[in-house]
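Researcher: I've been going back and forth with a colleague about how argininosuccinate synthase might be arranged in three dimensions. Neither of us has a model we trust, so I'd like an independent prediction. The organism is Auxenochlorella protothecoides, in case that matters for your notes. Sequence below.
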Amino acid sequence: MARPVFGQRQSMAGVSLAPARSMAARPQRAARRAVTTQAKLNKSKINKVVLAYSGGLDTSVILQWLKETYDCEVVTFTADLGQGEELEPARQKAEAAGVKEIFIDDLREEFVRDYVFPMFRANALYEGTYLLGTSIARPLIAKRQIEIARAVGADAVSHGATGKGNDQVRFELGYLGLQPDINVIAPWREWDLNSRSKLIEYAESRGIAVPQGKRNEPPFSMDANLLHISYEGNALEDPWQEPSESMFTRSVSPEQAPNTPTYVEIDFEKGDPVAIDGVRLSPATLLARLNQLGGDNGIGRVDIVESRFVGMKSRGVYETPGGTVLLTARRALESLCLDRGEAHLKDELMPKYAELVYNGFWFSPERAALQALVDETQKHATGTVRVKLYKGNVVVVGRKSPFSLFDQRVASFEDDEGAYDQRDAAGFIALQALRLRTLASQRGSPL
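Model: Here is an independent structure prediction for argininosuccinate synthase. You can compare it with whatever you and your colleague have in mind.
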């Protein structure tokens, strides 16, 4: 069947989604209520739950478990973030399970425009390598769940993240940051279905279909959206083990990439990409095109061991072809348009920004404050960058901007006709050396 169009909202009960009420309009007493923890959750007070639902085995089991455990109505919400999967089966499975209100939203444009691009303006990399593909998707899912919960009168939201991972934190910080009095149900922290065999046994006893592939231990777990795809677990739990080439889905290996380079020109306006090779594209369409170009040239694979917010180390393999191209091109443009002070301050603050996104603090005041500073630096980040894509590499081969701070007369090794007086450097160096000379005189040479 056809994919849902942008902005589509499906509800089996025909619920109209009016704009969500602002938090300011809600009674102030709601903000003063103590946050309901899972340990204190009064099950008798849960009437309706909005579940982040994929239609896979885990969330299908969660759907049934919520009904049985809380004796409540379950509303399902499935987000299309460009994961590349047909979402119609999720609607069909929810309907077969007796769900009356089913929401399937195409959030691709909002995801890239309002989450990915703002993050990329900060050039955010977690621990110097991770482009935060999973992290940046969670606040949008949380936001949409809260909007739906308000629209349908739900008193709880639920997710399928485990108690070992980062996603439980990201989802719940999003929920509670947007609606402090919402009840949160995290089944993996509550039930006793702590193994795949128990999960399958539960599913079969309730008539939930179990795909044949789920009966065997999968080689790894995956999470995908328009920015990236991640692979974790099982076969990858040994950091010494090289990933299998058959695992990758968004890129060819650099060895198998074309022997002829691909040249691409990316136009930027105020820090955001707006066109490829002169053709203006919407945010989601542009990122999808960069994914194709990067993946075809073996770009965007990374194998890292990262520090999870919950305290453990985990090994993950990621494919982020379009994001890798975009980051390289953006930095090239900034090198031309940003003042040294702006650029260096951004680089100093970037690890903090990336950590906030990774840890789930997208809706925090400190992330908003950093975003305002980052966006201020992007007012003149407009221009074009030309890159060469070749066998896993992104090589910048040209950049231009109407706001360029590069002065060829001053930088030239040829006669600058008086634009720069080289004799001025003597006084500059003397002043910079003053404290070093004083230290050496008082304390002796460090040699």
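Researcher: What would you highlight for our discussion?
Model: I'd start with this: The radius of gyration is 26 Å. After that, consider the following. The chain has 14 helices and 14 strands.
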